[in-house]
Amino acid sequence: MSDIAVARGTRGVSGYVLRQAEPEDLPGARSVMLDTVHRDFGHGYLPRWHSDIIDLESYYLAPEDNALFVAVRDGVVAATAGVRGQTPVSPPHPIEVASRFEEGRTATLYRVYVRPKHRRQGLAGALVDTCLAFIAGRDRYSGVYLHTDARTPGAVEFWSKRGEVLFDERTSPDRMSTETRDEPFQTVHFSLDIPR
């Protein structure tokens, strides 16, 4: 079992169990992720950007400093959040973003997704807190990065309350990498603090 587990009712999340994912959770987690990229992003699975969704075990379970967390209700995965040791690089990220993080010492949050019928239950916040606690327990990490697609309902507002906007590609399209210009994203980049 995981070294991080959040019991029922913790942090205002009632009726869910938040825990580090086990191999048997991966099909449910993958379903939440694929449904999100199809429904919320409007473009579906893109291998170039979403290969981790297909190979969750290699990206999140196998590496020691990576993790995938799930919120489960009645045996069904309702939400996900992942941590990967991955420093943003330019390209494809703007130089203003890549230059803010120390190579090899950055934790990146990925796939913070909640199924629509489970939203407004505090799951995303509780999962992010769990990810940050995991990151804080690793000597390797000195910074936390994430990016979000602004078309995801409530995403920019959620992350703006938790971290600092580093770069908003919606308002700086002339400064975007030519490599990412043709991608179907409206990306906003953030930095979060590691709890100490």
From TrEMBL:
<protein>
    <submittedName>
        <fullName>GNAT family N-acetyltransferase</fullName>
    </submittedName>
</protein>
<keyword id="KW-0808">Transferase</keyword>
<dbReference type="Pfam" id="PF00583">
    <property type="entry name" value="Acetyltransf_1"/>
</dbReference>
<dbReference type="InterPro" id="IPR016181">
    <property type="entry name" value="Acyl_CoA_acyltransferase"/>
</dbReference>
<dbReference type="GO" id="GO:0008080">
    <property type="term" value="F:N-acetyltransferase activity"/>
</dbReference>
<dbReference type="InterPro" id="IPR050769">
    <property type="entry name" value="NAT_camello-type"/>
</dbReference>
<feature type="domain" description="N-acetyltransferase">
    <location>
        <begin position="16"/>
        <end position="181"/>
    </location>
</feature>
<dbReference type="InterPro" id="IPR000182">
    <property type="entry name" value="GNAT_dom"/>
</dbReference>
